[in-house]
Amino acid sequence: MQIPRSAFVAAPVLMGAYGIIRILDGLDGSHGPGLAWTTGHLCFLGALAFFVRGFAEMRAIAGRGRLAAVGFWAGTAGVVAVGGQFVIDIVVGFMSADRGAMEDLFTKIQGVPGIEPAFYSFGPMLFFVGQLILVVQLATRRTLKPWAPVLVLIDTTLPFADKDLIPLGAVLLLISFAPLYRRAAPQAALSPRLYAAVQAAPCDGDGA
């Protein structure tokens, strides 16, 4: 039962790893193609898998109400969209000899009807919206600190200002999720039957 505990750490850490690798990849003046491009994107895909598990855990803690369900499914749909974008990036990297060839291929792919809104604009926004809905709910229940939604919102906006700030956003997420990590950690040591009972019990918030 280590997944709930690790998800709240692994997701931001892998996201931060992507950001750091991206910075290193750009030291020569361009991003991709190559090993750094592929490795960084694989790190982010790993982060997305942990985010989905984290969203499920946050939904359970929030009480599985309608708003929690909206947050979970919106976040999960966003994960699929962002994941699709990163898979496209990896494929383009493998198919291109240099950054110029990548740009040409990106233009062709994004020109296909539906691709741009699904994987590059509207779709990915669902990830941030869903995550924020869940975090606000947990902050309202005092499971997360009152300022956690602010940090998550800042993390959401940082890449739009400068993608080199992605590692900073990952640190903000780690700080925001810390109460969830501490909450999940002792429960992970319980027997599977007792753990399931704890997860099913109503949560009034522990003020952590």
* Strand-residue proportion: under 5%
Distance between the termini: 21 Å
String of helices and strands: HHHHHHHHH
Question: Helix amount, in percent?
Answer: over 70%
Query: Count of DSSP helices?
Result: 9
**Please, how many domains?**
1
Name the shape in a single word. Answer: globular
Radius of gyration: 18 Å
Secondary structure: number of strands: 0
**Estimated structural class:** mainly alpha
Q: Quaternary state, please?
A: single chain
Low-confidence stretches: 185-199, 201-208
Mean pLDDT score, rounded?
Answer: 88
**How would you characterize the largest beta sheet?**
none
A few lines on this structure:
This protein is mainly alpha-helical and 208 residues long. It has one domain.
Structure write-up:
Keywords: Membrane, Transmembrane, Transmembrane helix. The chain crosses the membrane at residues 35-55, 67-97, 117-136. This protein is an all-alpha fold. The chain has one domain. Helices cover 78% and strands 0% of the residues. The chain is built from 9 helices and no strands. α3 (66-95) runs antiparallel to α6 (122-140) and α7 packs antiparallel against α8 (166-188). It is globular and about 50 Å long. The chain starts with a helix and ends in an 8-residue tail after the last helix. Mean pLDDT is 88; it is low at 185-199 and 201-208.
